Amino acid sequence: MNSQELLDPDRSMWDYIAVELRKERRTRGVSGAALARLIGRDRSIVSRIESGKIPMQLDHAEIIDREWNLERRFTRLVKFAKERKDDEWRLGDLSEQEARATRARMWELGLVPGLLQTPAYTRAVFSVGLVRDLDEAIETRLARQAAVFNKERPPEVSVILNWVVLEQPVGTADVMREQLAHLLELGDLPHVNLRVLEKSAGVHVGYDGSLMLLTVDARDIAYAEAPHGGGLVTDPKDVQQFEVRYDRIGHLAAPIGPSRVMIQQALETYT
């Protein structure tokens, strides 16, 4: 069964858009490559939209409506989909976007980001939640990490950790020592940049919540944390707001060298 057969337009507005785009394109006898040229993107973008792997962008919808004389049909559909909180873009696609990303920027308010966690730290985090199968959840997270870091050309990774991440015990002292040592090892990699935002920074925009910015196909998308799960943000105007937040947080964070010292000092407190 291919990905298009898995779409459910009765359940998801985004799936409905994907199905309708494919149907409209075929009705008009337009190839995927021709539609890609129309919106100024690669053929693969059209394929991923029609298979439901990524959502249609508002600017693409506007171009299609204008060029095909559809009287704002797809523009309205995309706006409706974005406004429906019960139909957020699939969290399950985050791992796919991470694996394809050429750049990842993360701000973490209270925990080590999932992509940087050790198995023991992950187990400690999941143990206090509602995860039914710990081993399966840990394996899934490790697979996400491998898909990002074990590639021939891993992405450029920039991470800003709130000071709480270093001082908040997660699991035992041994778990924390292993985790902080792992952060130091990751920081030695040429494509990984780790910085810490000190307590002295006070209250700042980072307290709005953790976030991730991914560059996929030369385009930035964001992932916003939420109490009952997160969601991918793809609209360029919305993504820009996350980029502004990340930049403001970065302006306050310590440089790489002092940040490494802070991580080392925190490690030594877990005896």
Describe it for me?
By secondary structure, this protein is of the alpha/beta class. The chain folds into 2 domains: 3-87, Orthogonal Bundle (434 Repressor (Amino-terminal Domain)), CATH 1.10.260.40; 91-269, Endonuclease, Chain A. The protein is 50% helix and 13% strand. The chain has helices at 13-27, 32-39, 43-50, 58-67, 73-83, 94-100, 119-127, 134-149, 163-167, 173-187, 236-252, 256-269, and strands at 103-108, 156-162, 192-197, 211-216, 219-224, 231-233. The chain is elongated and about 70 Å long. The mean pLDDT is 89. This is Helix-turn-helix transcriptional regulator. It comes from Actinomadura meridiana.
Order of helices and strands: HHHHHHEHHEHHEEEEHH
Task: Tally the structural domains.
Answer: 2
Write the CATH fold name of the largest domain.
Endonuclease, Chain A
Please tally the β strands and state the result: 6
User: Main sheet?
Assistant: 6 strands, mixed
So how many helices?
12
Structure in a nutshell:
The chain has twelve helices and six strands.
Key traits:
Helix-turn-helix transcriptional regulator, Endonuclease, Chain A, 434 Repressor (Amino-terminal Domain), 12 helices, elongated, 271 residues, Lambda_DNA-bd_dom_sf, DUF5753, 13% strand, single chain, Cro/C1-type_HTH, alpha/beta
Layout of helices and strands, plus pairs?
Elements: H1 13-27, H2 32-39, H3 43-50, H4 58-67, H5 73-83, H6 94-100, E1 103-108, H7 119-127, H8 134-149, E2 156-162, H9 163-167, H10 173-187, E3 192-197, E4 211-216, E5 219-224, E6 231-233, H11 236-252, H12 256-269
Parallel strand pairs: 1-2, 2-3
Antiparallel strand pairs: 1-4, 4-5, 5-6
Helix pairs in contact: 1-5, 2-3, 4-5, 7-8, 10-12
